[in-house]
Amino acid sequence: MNIVVESAVANDEAIRIEARCTAPGAHCPVCGDWSSRPHPSYLRSSADLPCVGRQSAAWLRVRRFLCANTGCPRRTFIEQAPGLTRPHGRTTERLRSTMDTLSLALTGRAGARIAAHIGIATHRNTLLRRVMDLPDPAPTEPRAIGVDDFTLHRGHVCDTVITDAVTHRVLDLLPKRDAATSAPWLAAHSEIEVICRDRAGAYVDAADAAASQAQQVADCFHLRQNIANSVKRTVTGHRPCLYELPLLEPESVPE
Predict the structure, then answer these.
(1) Do residues 199 and 131 share a domain?
(2) How far apart are CA 58 and CA 175, in angstroms?
(3) What is the pLDDT of residues 3-51, one digit of tens each?
(4) Which has fewest Cβ within 10 Å: 5, 49, 81, 142?
């Protein structure tokens, strides 16, 4: 990284670090041509990770370069510091990474409270936008999936959610809870070997019709529910066999 720190000023509340880029030139972000014709520079402020309980900011002096390619629609561009800044970014990359981790783990209000505790000034809506801006994970070919129903609002019609049983990531959301909707999705994923499902008959029919190669298993919740229901029926059926214990007379307390 071609950056030289020129000064660092600290007070009781914040730390200010000034630096400048020393690269002889930069690549145009549009055409990729190298340019070494700088124009006037300016100071760019980026919030950084807090240090010893104080907020810190990196003030980086960047230069504007003239693109050497006459056919490029971008006449001038600003140099970037890879690993430190990005176009139109107001935070350093390491602060952005920390906020992304907070937003994924705690989302809005809880993430904002933890961020304020460690010295990061942010808002809950900012953390929510971080989650929305993150790229979707790369699609995978799951070997084991979980199929269950869900609803966004109480009392509404149930839909179907399909998850990866290994990574616990949501793979897809289907609009209905029936075999006609689930079967095409299962047929398009012939690599599935295990289907973990509940006791709904629609999922049984879909798996039998479109994923006959997969082994169907019941999830842990319904296994426990089956055991609890069996124990309840057994105890209820043998209720006449139970007898009431005689009441014990309270022992007299000596005076």
Answers:
(1) no
(2) 48
(3) 889 899 988 888 999 999 888 889 999 999 999 888 888 889 999 999 8
(4) 5
